[in-house]
Design goal:
- The protein is globular.
- Helices cover 38% and strands 30% of the residues.
- Strands 1, 2, 3, 4, 5, 6, 7, 8, 9, 10, 11, 12, 13 and 14 form a 14-stranded mixed beta sheet that branches.
Length: 404
C-alpha cells in the first residue's frame, strides 16, 4: 500500500478482494454523508457480474484506509472508448476519419449502452464523514500528476494510464463535489455540467399537510384521481407488497410485464426487453431485499395486477426507481398515479422525509414534487497525447460546424 497524509491506499484490480471487502464497504457507505443503495457493494458487484466482462473493462477500485479502518473507496473501472474524429467534416465521418481510442476511468454502475442502461442515479466516491478532502486528495495522487499524464505513464501502484476520468450522476449536494473539484483541477481540463434533474417531494408530517401544501388545482386532481379509481374498482382492490422471496419473484415478473405493456403501446421497447437490464435486477433484488433496501408493490383491481412500483430505500428517503401499468383501462382511471399517491401516504406514515422521483421530467413528477436536485457530471480530460488529439479534433469539428 502507498501512504499519503497518514492514509494508506491501494488499487484493487481483481474481483475476489472486492467481494471479501463487501462488509467493510457497506459499513463505510453507512458512515458516509450519502448512504445510497447504488453506492453499496450489492449494487456495484452485481453490476460488475453483468457488465464487467464486456468492452474490455478492467477493475480499478481505489481503497483508502486510516490504520486498519476503511475510510474511502472509489469504485472505478478502466475501459477504452473508441471514436472517430474527422476535422474536415462537421458530421465526423469520411474516409479520412482518424480513429481515436481514449482510456477512460469511470464509476462502476455507469457507462452501459443506452439500451441496457441501469440508471444508477447518485453513484459516487464514498468517504467516511470528515475524510472527504483527504479522500479527494488521495484519488488525485492515485491518478498521477500532470507530468505522468503528459508522458502517457503512471506509477505502478496508481490507477493506470488513462486519458480521462468521468464521474456521472453525482447529486448537486454531494459533499465530495468541492473537494474533488479542488483536487482534480490541477491534473487537466476539468468540466462540470448538469446531466439531468431529479424531482423530489419533501414529505410533511401528515397526509393532510401534504394536501394543504398543494395548489387548489393540484388538490382537486389528487382527490379526483383517488375518487375515480375507487368508483371504477367498486372498492374491490388491494395493495400487495413483496414480503418473501417467492412474492419478490412474482412482483418482479408483474413489474416487467406491466412495464413492457406501457412502452409497447407507444411502439417502443421497455427497459426489461434488455437481457442485461433484466439479468441485473433478477440478481440484485434478492440481495437488496435481505437488507431492507428495496420494495416491490403492486395494485390489484378488476381481478388482476394493474400497476406496479419498484422503490429503493436510502436512510429516510424513498427513491422511486421503476414502474409499469396496464394500458387497457378507461382513460380517466390513472392506476399508476393512484399507486404513487398511496405510496406517498405510506412513506409519510413511516416517517420518511423524502420521496425522490429520480431523473425524468414527466408531468406527474413535476406536479407532485417540491424541488429539483441536479445530477452533475465531473469530467477530467488529462494532458495525455491521445486526450489532446481528441480535444483538438473536436475543437476542429466544432469550428467546422460553426463555419457552416
Amino acid at each position: 500500500m502507498t501512504s499519503l497524509n497518514g492514509l494508506r491506499w491501494e488499487v484493487v484490480t481483481q474481483l475476489a478482494p472486492l467481494v471479501a471487502l463487501a462488509p467493510e464497504w457497506d459499513a463505510l457507505v453507512a458512515a458516509s454523508a450519502h448512504p445510497e443503495v447504488v453506492r453499496g457493494s450489492d449494487w456495484n458487484l452485481t453490476w460488475w457480474e453483468v457488465f464487467g466482462s464486456e468492452d474490455d473493462r478492467q477493475l480499478r477500485v481505489l481503497v483508502v484506509r486510516d490504520g486498519d479502518e476503511l475510510v474511502g473507496l472509489a469504485p472505478l473501472l478502466l475501459r477504452p472508448i473508441h471514436t472517430l474524429l474527422d476535422p474536415t467534416r462537421a458530421d465526423g465521418g469520411s474516409k479520412l476519419a482518424l480513429p481515436v481510442a481514449l482510456q477512460r476511468l469511470e464509476l462502476i454502475g455507469s457507462g452501459e449502452p443506452h439500451a441496457d442502461e441501469i440508471c444508477s442515479d447518485y453513484v459516487g466516491i464514498v468517504a467516511k464523514v470528515g475524510y472527504e478532502s483527504a479522500i479527494a486528495e488521495t484519488l488525485a495522487a492515485a491518478l498521477g500528476g500532470a507530468r505522468e499524464a503528459l508522458l502517457g505513464s503512471s506509477s505502478e501502484d496508481g490507477l493506470g494510464r488513462h486519458d480521462e476520468l468521468v464521474l456521472p450522476s453525482l447529486p448537486e449536494d454531494d459533499v465530495m463535489l468541492e473537494p474533488l473539484t479542488r483536487a482534480l483541477a490541477p491534473l487537466g481540463r476539468l468540466e462540470r455540467r448538469v446531466e439531468a434533474d431529479a424531482l423530489v417531494l419533501e414529505l410533511p408530517a401528515s397526509w393532510d399537510d401534504f394536501l394543504a401544501s398543494r395548489r387548489s388545482s393540484q388538490r382537486y386532481r389528487i382527490r379526483r384521481t383517488l375518487r375515480r379509481f375507487e368508483q371504477w374498482s367498486g372498492g374491490e382492490h388491494a395493495i400487495v407488497r413483496a414480503d418473501d422471496r417467492a412474492s419478490l419473484d412474482r412482483g418482479l415478473t408483474i413489474l416487467a410485464e406491466l412495464h413492457e405493456e406501457r412502452w409497447s403501446r407507444d411502439g417502443r421497447r421497455g427497459a426489461f426487453s434488455s437481457p442485461h437490464f433484466a439479468q441485473f435486477h433478477r440478481k440484485v433484488l434478492p440481495r437488496l431485499f435481505e437488507r431492507g433496501q428495496v420494495g416491490l408493490t403492486w395494485l390489484v383491481a378488476d381481478g388482476r395486477p394493474v400497476a406496479a412500483q419498484y422503490n429503493l430505500f436510502s436512510g429516510n428517503t424513498l427513491r422511486f426507481y421503476q414502474a409499469g401499468r396496464a394500458m387497457d383501462l378507461r382513460n380517466d382511471v390513472c392506476v399508476g398515479l393512484t399507486l404513487h399517491l398511496w405510496e406517498i401516504a405510506r412513506a409519510i406514515e413511516e416517517g420518511l422525509r423524502e420521496y425522490d422521483f429520480l431523473a425524468g421530467a414527466q408531468r406527474y413528477k413535476a406536479e407532485l414534487s417540491t424541488r429539483r436536485r441536479s445530477l452533475l457530471q465531473l469530467r477530467l480530460l488529462r494532458r495525455t497525447p491521445t486526450a489532446q488529439l481528441f480535444r483538438a479534433g473536436w475543437w476542429a469539428v466544432d469550428w467546422a460546424r460553426r463555419r457552416r
